[in-house]
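step 4 of 6: structure.
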Amino acid sequence: EDQVTQSPEALRLQEGESSSLNCSYTVSGLRGLFWYRQDPGKGPEFLFTLYSAGEEKEKERLKATLTKKESFLHITAPKPEDSATYLCAVQAPGGGADGLTFGKGTHLIIQP
Amino acid sequence: DVKVTQSSRYLVKRTGEKVFLECVQDMDHENMFWYRQDPGLGLRLIYFSYDVKMKEKGDIPEGYSVSREKKERFSLILESASTNQTSMYLCASSSSVVDTQYFGPGTRLTVL
């Protein structure tokens, strides 16, 4: 069974304090790994897709990396508006369903 | 920009009622998905569709059905709502099976 584990569950940082969120996964034949941001009461907002180990993508203060067992979302010099829940999801073939398997998310709070 | 809309942001229904949740996407995407999101459980796939009139069960289809009569519209149906179906319902679409899924704003359903 495909599994996705995100850590930490919650993280509180000071504005400007860089850190990383972790997403570890066990899947057979990864098709893609996705990062989303979700604000309270809203739908997930797409951030990045990674397809193969060694791949990296960046967007403003965020950088996502991928290895064969885990992905990291690095956040550099965060601002209060970066506060949100960050979700990691994987897609793998088989099982009759091609939806995403999500982790439970990391709730990130950036304090001014 | 991809736009996925859902018919209601908030919905309150009584036990036993038939409930329709509507989702529309404007990007001519082939695939559409329904998830539910619950605290501590994350997002779980209910049903998905990869073509008009086609549907596949996800991880938790019990108590739900779906309809896709037109490419842009995907409906989730609760035949007889129960209190354990109180949840946030999220619709998503993608242009191919292995591609980024874009989410709507969600419908928070309360069943009394």
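step 5 of 6: annotate
 - The radius of gyration of chain B is 13 Å.
 - Chain B touches chain A through 28 residues (CB under 8 Å).
step 6 of 6: archive
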